[in-house]
Amino acid sequence: MVATDIEKDIQESVKSASSSSSASDLYDSESDDTALAQKLKLINNTLDEIGFTPYHLKLFFLNGMGYATDSQLLMLESTVRQFVNYQFDQSFPISNEAMVIGGIAGACFWGYGADIIGRKTAFNWSLFLSGLFVIITGAMNSMATYCLFIALSAFAFGGNLVLDTCVFLEFLPFKQQWLLTFFAFFWGIGQTVAVLIAWAFLTNFSCEGPDSAHCDSADNRGWRYTYYVNGAIVLVLAILRVTVVRLKESPKFLVSNNRDEEAFELLKGLAEKYNRKFTLTLAQLEDCGSIVSNHGIQEDRSIVGVFKLVIKHLSILFGTKKMARSTLTLFLSWLILGICYPIYYAFLPTYLATRGANISASTTYGVYRDNVVSNVVSIAGPLIAGGLLYFVPILGRRGVLAIGAFSSAAFFFGYTAITNHAQNLAISSIVYATLYIYFGCLYAYSPEIMPATARATGNACCIMITRFGQIFSPIIAYYSNTASAVPLYVCGGLITVNGFLALTFPFEPSKSRPS
Description:
Layout: H1 2-18, E1 24-25, H2 34-50, H3 54-88, H4 94-117, H5 119-137, H6 143-169, H7 179-182, H8 185-202, H9 222-243, H10 251-256, H11 260-273, H12 282-287, H13 303-316, H14 321-353, H15 364-378, H16 380-391, H17 396-414, H18 421-448, H19 455-470, H20 472-479, H21 486-504, E2 512-513
Parallel strand pairs: 1-2
Helix pairs in contact: 3-6, 3-8, 3-9, 4-5, 4-6, 4-13, 4-19, 5-6, 5-9, 6-19, 8-9, 8-15, 14-19, 14-20, 14-21, 15-18, 16-18, 17-18, 17-21
Pfam family, one: MFS_1
Protein name: MFS general substrate transporter
Subcellular location: Membrane
């Protein structure tokens, strides 16, 4: 009799905790794993109960380091590429292809792995290896070895971007989810750092071009110094991640793998440290039962077992018709973006050259000055996106995505009418900012609508797909006539399609909590 009463009390407490939040959960009607859905609801309620703490603020900047690093290292490769090509007598952008392939492999390895080994391990190692490989890249003496370490560095930081949003999201209370979009302002910071370092070294320690009398390593060390300094910065950030701000494992990953006690102790410790309300009990979590999403294969760490688990996580992304539609439209958006964005920057220099000598900066110094200005302005994009979500919540993620896409398309088309350097600098800066409204919101939206069990896997697929699209851009630019305005119209048209796709996304996480 007593046991029965206790059991009823526990069941009532689960129901009470499950309904304590005013916000519904995104997959209330979509989950086929009742135990997992109940546990995630309890975790969400507890995160809302604890609220935003100094730990969340530390996590904001900790993960922001990863965002900044990704954009910093992508900008680094494109900025030094021509000077590396001068030295190794190369014209085809092979290093870009190496970086993209490495990024695809990294997103796959770290993203899929994070749903198996945990967020914390993959999160810390990816940034450390990025810094190490970037430093080594600067010491290479042939195009083959240079491309090898470009690929390895991209492999490392390719997983970093996958995990930054996942880790931050899985600790956030519902009311602060808008910070995930605001988060992307770190991109502009990372790119600006890369360009400033390149500006300092490339303008003073580089050969003048492929026709110079000498363009060997002694006369062309600017790109090496640029790699060394950028790599050292990333390495320092990686060390700070494990010494100053120590990441805790995600409670949602823990309960998704039947590690209820660890998740409970983690949340309890967070609440006690910051003197916050905490009503969750371990019994509530355990009474939900064992999850079935990974049942039978989660303990099998053989190659076959891991492969089965990856397949299982991929299948979760298509678990229902609504989830399948959401996943497919999201993947299509990422593919279009991967093709559109690099084509714009690959075609632009040649197109501008046809518009007259006064369109672009006439000196190397001027080119880097303009690049710094554009990257600083780009920081406004995520700030605008976050502000719209916070002050105009009726727009939701889909509305902000559409605003970013349609405004970017308008300025893509407007680029065809520029006639002087001032217009070029202004439009290019605005394009950066408007694209980052869309980029920032899409990077935040993607993990928000992924089920927790397969969140890193789904986010990895998004990054892999957009990287796959990037493979074709330099090939198209290399073999095509880039002197016409057609590529700008194509880019504008593609980003317009993405705006309409955003309006058709079936889930709106601003009105429902992610799992």
